[in-house]
Design goal:
single chain; Rossmann fold; alpha/beta; disordered N terminus; seven-stranded mixed β-sheet
């Protein structure tokens, strides 16, 4: 992970550009409907097919700082409804909240904290044998969290979101965005979607990477 504290340029690669924008109506699990503008990119520092969703601009005045969420792809949670994590509920919450306040959701292709889907499922096997989520990655000779948010800063810059309120419980996201030149004026906590299936997963995040999660016993 990126741990340097030096200020970095917010400018994307000279070849980076917005590739396409399209309006997409969306139906949320709550029954609400929203319309997002989906943006694709070319020439970013990371070749993954990352997308940005701008939402709720009708609700934001020129004085309001946009609300931004960096959401790492989670096929098992976002699509299949896995209860091993809280990714699906967080995605739904972020979409509703950003639509209400105005801002942007980045959907980053960083499955399994950047190790990929198959490796994540291999890590699940180890977790079922007693390893926590970070130790399982290390047992596979993988970084416990391989994500880097430089590409997120590039996407935000191309969209004009250089001063933001960040919707997260993960201090590393705010730290890295600031390092890459994004002005994080406030951190807004997400909900804590704890169940018996994901409690140990959340407790591990709070203990190991200091996520700001209000959990009893932490």
């Amino acid at each position: 992970m990126q741990n340097t504290t030096a200020q970095k340029s917010t400018a994307p690669h000279t070849s980076a550009r917005l590739r396409a924008t399209v309006r997409v109506p969306m139906h949320l699990n709550s029954g609400a409907s929203v319309t997002a503008e989906l943006h694709t990119f070319a020439g970013l520092s990371d070749p993954g097919e990352h997308i940005a969703l701008t939402l709720g601009e009708r609700n934001r005045t020129s004085e309001q700082v946009p609300l931004v969420r960096l959401h790492s792809e989670c096929l098992t949670g976002d699509v299949l409804g896995s209860a091993r994590c809280d990714c699906g509920p967080q995605l739904q919450e972020a979409t509703r909240q950003i639509d209400a306040e105005g801002g942007c959701l980045l959907y980053l292709r960083q499955e399994g904290r950047g190790i990929g889907l198959y490796n994540k499922l291999d890590a699940y096997v180890l977790q079922d044998r007693g390893f926590d989520t970070y130790a399982a990655n290390e047992e596979l000779n993988l970084d416990p969290d391989a994500r880097n948010y430089r590409v997120a800063a590039e996407m935000l810059t191309l969209l004009g979101f250089t001063s933001i309120r960040l919707l997260t419980n993960n201090p590393e996201k705010a730290k890295q965005l600031a390092q890459y030149g994004i002005d994080v004026v406030a951190v807004v906590p997400t909900g804590v979607f704890v169940t018996e299936d994901n409690r140990y997963y959340l407790e591990t995040k709070a203990r190991v990477t200091r996520h700001t999660l209000a959990l009893s016993g932490i």
